[in-house]
Amino acid sequence: MRSLLGRPPLRLWLGKIHPVELHDDRLRVAAPSPIARDWLAKHAAEPVAGALQEAAGRTVAVEFILPQLEIPLEDPAEP
């Protein structure tokens, strides 16, 4: 990841994202705009997933989403 973060475009895009949900082996990450989401999906999903696999010791898929379109992967239990 360090070598990827050294590239200005990727550093710019990754600096504006935040994790939303980790469920099973899928990490959902909010992107600031549709353009950013699409760019990140094309250029960053695999490198980020690779870094996560190295850090966590397991395969983790990465999905970039828009915050206003967040849909929980699992409905919370009602009280």
Structure, explained:
It is a single chain. The protein has four helices and three strands. The protein has 79 residues and is α+β, with helices and mostly antiparallel strands. The protein has a three-stranded mixed beta sheet with strand order 1-2-3. A hairpin with a 2-residue loop joins strand 1 (18-23) and strand 2. The radius of gyration is 13 Å and the shape is globular. The relative contact order is 0.21.
Q: Which properties best describe this structure?
A:
79 residues, three-stranded mixed β-sheet, 20% strand, alpha+beta, 4 helices, 42% helix
Q: What's the helix and strand layout?
A:
Blueprint: H1 2-5, H2 8-14, E1 18-23, E2 26-30, H3 34-43, H4 45-56, E3 61-65
The rounded distance between the terminal residues' Cα atoms is: 41 Å
Shape: globular
Determine the mean pLDDT. Answer: 79
- Element order: H for helix, E for strand: HHEEHHE
Helical residues, percent: 40-55%
Strand elements, count: 3
Enumerate how many helices there are, as a single number.
4
How would you classify the helix and strand content by structural class?
A: alpha+beta
Q: Roughly what fraction of the amino acids lie in strands?
A: 15-25%
Q: Work out the radius of gyration.
A: 13 Å
Largest sheet: 3 strands, mixed
Sequence of strands across the biggest β-sheet: 1-2-3
Sequence stretches where pLDDT stays below 50 over 5 or more residues:
none
